[in-house]
Amino acid sequence: MAIWYPVDTGLFVTASFDQYVKVWDTNLTQVVMDFKMPGKVYSAAMSPIASTHMLIATGSADVQVRLCDIASGAFTHTLSGHRDGIMSLEWSASSEWILMSGGCDGAIRFWDIRRAGCFCVLDQSRSQLGRRPPFPEGTSEKDPMNSLKSSPSSKIYSAQQRTGKSKQSRTLHKSQILGHGHIQQRLHPGLSSSQNRATAHYGAVTGLRATTDGMYLLSSGSDSRLRLWDIDSGYNTLVNFEAMRLQTSKPLQLAVTEDPSLVFIPCMASIKAYNLWSGMTFQTFRGHYEPVNCCYYSAQEQELYTGSNDRQILVWSPSTPAFTEMEDDDKRQRDFVVDEDNWSD
């Protein structure tokens, strides 16, 4: 896989099954730095909002997340907690210190890279139907983590703590605290054994993508499921995405529109666009001949870019002839179904 250096296009980073993460000079098309990993490298990510560090988070067949520093050319530290290889990584869109990882053990873990251990493990059995309520007055939409101060879940927890009725709610509240300096940070040793063993998917977590507002996280798994998580609470929102068939042995790169209203996900040799909130299929893009591994949506150009094992990179836009043909084919099929009953033997 390849990612751009977030600040400018002068550098880009590649990660490969050859166990190397390499930093390239775009103008010279030469490798200027490389990092040797202990196994196949599945994923690499850089924070799009980082201003105080130049870290590349890497996930490989090894069980640890490794952080590589471009500034020093060395590893800074590792993050331990997964029990199998790490296939997907995603930095928070609201904090340069928060990293999310998805492993072959089915777990999605949240890390504050300034501290030891993860502070949250997503659990598919913890759910909350629907979208998050509007922000209370006095909180910032750009920083959803601040809503913890006055969220309904916090008020419920406070009441239960005073009455001493629910020890379990106190445990859940601890895992919800994502920490921003003044908020108390809960470390991995503070997680209960059941929380530490929680899984987000039945199988490997093959893809992660946070929405641009930093409020929700999308995850795909080898169980051919797509799940939408509320980052603030850690709850599964129970959006029922329509049936899909996903690759199970490779990481997948998902894409989300700026709204966010649509999510694009590689489904074998096609790409499906789903409504983020209803889970309904909006459109299916067909053009590749072999499994698609990655997709990227450009909000500026209103275009979708996809890459496949057929060694082709396709560009999809509203003016693409394939779109018109696809829509015409769908219309003809619908018309045929409607007129089918008008014919008799």
How many domains? The number is: 2
Q: Please state the average pLDDT score.
A: 79
Strand content: 25-35%
Q: Look up the CATH topology of the largest domain.
A: Methylamine Dehydrogenase, Chain H
What can be said about the biggest beta sheet? Answer: 4 strands, antiparallel
Number of DSSP strands?
Answer: 22
Q: What's the CATH architecture of the largest domain?
A: 7 Propeller
Top-tier CATH class of the largest domain = Mainly Beta
Overall structural class, as computed from helix and strand content, comes to: mainly beta
Shape annotation:
globular
What does this 3D model show about the protein?
The protein has helices at residues 152-163, 167-176, 193-196, 321-340; strands at 2-4, 11-15, 20-25, 30-36, 41-46, 55-60, 65-69, 74-79, 86-91, 98-103, 108-112, 118-121, 205-210, 216-221, 226-230, 255-256, 262-267, 270-275, 281-286, 292-298, 303-308, 313-316. The protein has 345 residues and is mainly β. The protein has 2 domains: 2-240, YVTN repeat-like/Quinoprotein amine dehydrogenase (Methylamine Dehydrogenase, Chain H), CATH 2.130.10; 253-338, Thrombin, subunit H (Beta Barrel), CATH 2.40.10. The strands form 6 sheets. A 4-stranded antiparallel β-sheet has the order 1-2-3-4, with no helix packed on it. Strands 5-6-7-8 form a 4-stranded antiparallel β-sheet, with no helix packed on it. Helix 1 packs antiparallel against helix 2 (167-176). Residues 129-172, 324-345 are annotated as: Disordered. InterPro entries: Rad28/ERCC8/Ckn1/ATCSA-1, WD40/YVTN_repeat-like_dom_sf, WD40_PAC1, WD40_repeat_CS, WD40_repeat_dom_sf, WD40_rpt. Pfam families: WD40 (PF00400). Residues 147-158 have a biased composition (Low complexity).
